[in-house]
Amino acid sequence: MALRLFNTLTRRKEEFQSIVEGKVGLYTCGPTVYDFAHIGNLRAFIFEDLLRRYLKYSGYQVKQVMNLTDVDDKTIRGSKEQGVSLAEYTQTYKEAFFEDLRNLNIEPAEVYPAATDHIQDMVDLILRLRDRGYTYEMDGATYFRISDFKEYGKLAHFKIDQLKVGARIDADSYEKEEARDFALWKAWDEEDGEVFWETELGKGRPGWHIECSAMSMKHLGEQFDIHTGGVDNIFPHHENEIAQSEGATGKPWVNYWLHCEHLLVEGKKMSKSEGNYYTLKDLSEKGYDRKAIRYLLLSTHYRQQLNFTLAGIDASRSALQRLYDFMENLKRVRKGGNHPEVAECVAETKKNFGQAMDDDLNISGGLAAIFDFVRKINILAAGGKIARGDAVEIVRTMENFDTVLGVLEYKQREIDEDVERMIQERHQARTSGDWKKADEIRDRLREMDIILEDSPEGTRWKIL
RNA sequence: GGCGGCAUAGCCAAGUGGUAAGGCAGGGGUCUGCAAAACCCUUAUUCCCCGGUUCGAGUCCGGGUGCCGCCUCCA
Fold first, then answer.
1. What's the pLDDT tens digit per position in A141-153?
2. What is the DSSP letter of A246?
3. Among A37, A83, A94, A130, which residue's Cβ finds the most Cβ atoms within 10 Å?
4. On chain B, which bases lie within 7 A of the protein's CB atoms?
5. What residues are paired with A203 via a beta bridge?
6. b or e along A11-21 (b: 16 or more beta carbons within 10 Å of the residue's beta carbon)?
């Protein structure tokens, strides 16, 4: 089995081969910390988390770097509007970002470099580009001349002369030789206020694209394995990064480019005016479960547009409940011994899961393998063919899959004394045959999202 | 104008040219005091439409229709 990934550079699935045996250098474009992340951003982070986790599951040691863009037009504008320093302004959103990651059970990257901590690295890279003749200066700013980089357009699959010079060009007021050229270093102007650095390139601040080139190479080397982001980053951001990085080093930079599709919300493009623009906090406040949100964002293939709906969160919640119940039931098995069918079933499931995921992270196939497994084991369990040893092995298998999915771990909340008393009371009622009272108590608990299940071994409860 | 993607059941969603995975929801049943969970049966003679290639097409080709994206800073 070998992992195959769809490479945006070649537009086809390629067998993944890391530069250093057993190790992967992964750069994932991170947030611009000017606002709270919306679920579209979160989808990208979850896709990257899935990739990271599956690489680890496959035996790779992963070094992931995710940048924090903490200086650009939007952060500067935001800090000015609020009358706080840039650092203070972005700190709020950095913290919110990390809180979202924790809430969605996204594994932390190894390095989170902030742009403002790497100004000198960017300047050095720009100077290298200048030495190699890719830059020009105008009005105190430094630009990259894309016509000097012959491979420009190889990622987005554009020919330079196909680029239409559109109306949006006017949005950038800087003077350039060619509208298509992009800024490496922006000259300070009054709008920037206190935000500037005095460097060999003059007084100003870095352009957006240069940070990813500088910080990825600093932390992962001049050539590394995988670079990811949303499809909207393909052009111009990633195209420009390639021009800068390969222009500076003269060698290939990234081997595999992976991009995740956007999502729609209730069938429409997410926008604040449509009222379908959600942050994780919005959804939590509506009572939606974070694990279910993670599952929903995870369960559609990353190159497929995902239609995010509130009903979909509920459906995901139900699917997860099936897995939770499965795990809980296994933990209750007491009978000793084990059965050979189980080992067979485990081996087959691992194979199916791996084959699906190896195919460009085909999560639908991976989940199908897991749900097939659940059904087969439940059938064995219904036939009394699951013993303690089997259960342990099955749980271990599921936990192994969950190192990739990150949705199974959940805390069973504790019940309080009142609920405990009600369950006792119902037990009394049942033993004395007072079904009416027993059912009434069960209904009341149901309304509190507590489900009672009677079994030969006694009554169990679970909290939804 | 240029480049690209998608269309599979009520919903979500897989699918090397060989006879439609999986999840949610729905219906019927077994178990249960009744439930819940679990299990069994059931829900697409058909994959947007029209042609074509082929013994055979959801899969390939041509032509439509619809939705979406990119073409300078939006994951």
1. 999 999 899 999 9
2. H
3. A37
4. 1-4, 6, 11-15, 21-25, 32-40, 68-75
5. A198
6. eeeeebebeee
